[in-house]
Amino acid sequence: MMNEKVKEALKLIRQGEGQFVEFKNKAKFPEKIIREVVAFANSSGGHLFIGVNDNGSLAGLKYPEDEEYVLTKAIAELCRPAINFTVDLLQVKEDKEILHYHIPESKDKPHFAFLEKKHRYGKAFVRSADHSIQASYEVRQILKRSKRAHQPIEFEEKTKQLFQYFESHPGITLSEYIELSGLNKKLASNKLIHLALSGALKIEPKEGGDIFMPTE
């Protein structure tokens, strides 16, 4: 009889890859897979399945204990700060076993993936739809400073100009804001970060450029 953990896993798998679900056929290259773990921890959490094809079909694992060992070891050694997670070995069919890693949203953001032990600096990743993308400077700063008390909004001329822009546009990228405001990149970036930390803006990470949008 199928247990509850297996039922829940199969339900998630049927939904397909997305913001909270990622499939990997094997853990053959764990240094590449850890970016998914980091992205989930830096975002809203998620589920990583090993032994599942991209289309959601169940490939199963020939040596699941070995796969679990190499990936769990990589997470412990190559992710900083340490990331909390749980892992279950699930028998989804009579002859098929998969691994289910559940990574909750972290309270210690941002986390970094050191893609090799010798690397001095890590890379932060976040989730964007069904992809894990490298976090921009703005996203990293917001993750790092979001634990602090919200900063008050200063409704000076540049802020008013931005919110007037939002009356006819759903969002704005950093490059678009530089053009709109006439500020240099550093000042424009700091302005958007400040507004995001104040709660006036929310940020949607994108590979082609993060989008800042009003929260209301």
UniProtKB/TrEMBL annotation:
InterPro entries: Schlafen_AlbA_2_dom (IPR007421), Schlafen_AlbA_2_dom_sf (IPR038461). The keyword Cell division does not apply. Residues 17-135 form the Schlafen AlbA-2 domain. This is Putative DNA-binding domain-containing protein. Pfam families: SLFN_AlbA_2. Keywords: DNA-binding. It comes from the Bacteria. One of its GO terms (molecular function) is DNA binding.
